[in-house]
Amino acid sequence: MFHLAAGPWRNPLHVLDMTNFMTMNMVMKIANVADFKSRISEFLAAVEAGEEIEVRKRNVPVARVVPVEKRKTNGTVLGCGRGTGRILGDVTEPLIPAEDWDMLGRGRT
């Protein structure tokens, strides 16, 4: 481990920020646009493996290719609720009595 000189990096929070910065730059791959275009399948395989790729144009970052979060699998089993509901009354009859249907049409133009 190295010792930090006096200064703004003496603060433990700044050291953590510097560590994150250094770790990110050591882990992330960097490619220029031409290299990325010619080796895109190789770079996408690396992204699928969890790596990040920073694409640069004239050494200026223009894009970052990152892995997509894994989708959660659907744990629903079709038919698992079968037989758990009860039907009360006649499902073919209207919910509103017939004499109230006229009320619904009034006031409309």
Secondary-structure map with pairings?
Layout: H1 12-27, E1 29-32, H2 33-38, H3 40-48, E2 53-57, E3 60-65, H4 101-105
Parallel strand pairs: 1-2
Antiparallel strand pairs: 2-3
State Rg.
31 Å
Low-confidence stretches: none
Q: How many beta-strand segments?
A: 3
Write down the overall geometry: elongated
- Could you name the CATH class of one domain? Alpha Beta
Looking at this structure, what is the CATH superfamily of one domain?
A: YefM-like domain
Order of strands across the biggest sheet? 1-2-3
CATH topology name of one domain, in short, is YefM-like fold
Gap between N and C termini, in Å? 82 Å
Number of contiguous helices: 4
Q: Summarize the amount of helix as a percent range.
A: 25-40%
Structural summary, described in words:
By secondary structure, the protein is an alpha+beta fold. The protein has a domain at about 30-70: YefM-like fold, CATH 3.40.1620.10. The protein has helices spanning about 10-25, 35-40, 40-50, 100-105; strands at about 30, 55, 60-65. It has a three-stranded mixed sheet. A hairpin with a 2-residue loop joins β2 and β3 (about 60-65). It is elongated. The termini are far apart.
Features:
109 residues, 4 helices, alpha+beta, 3-stranded mixed β-sheet, YefM-like fold
What's the quick description here?
This protein is of the alpha+beta class.
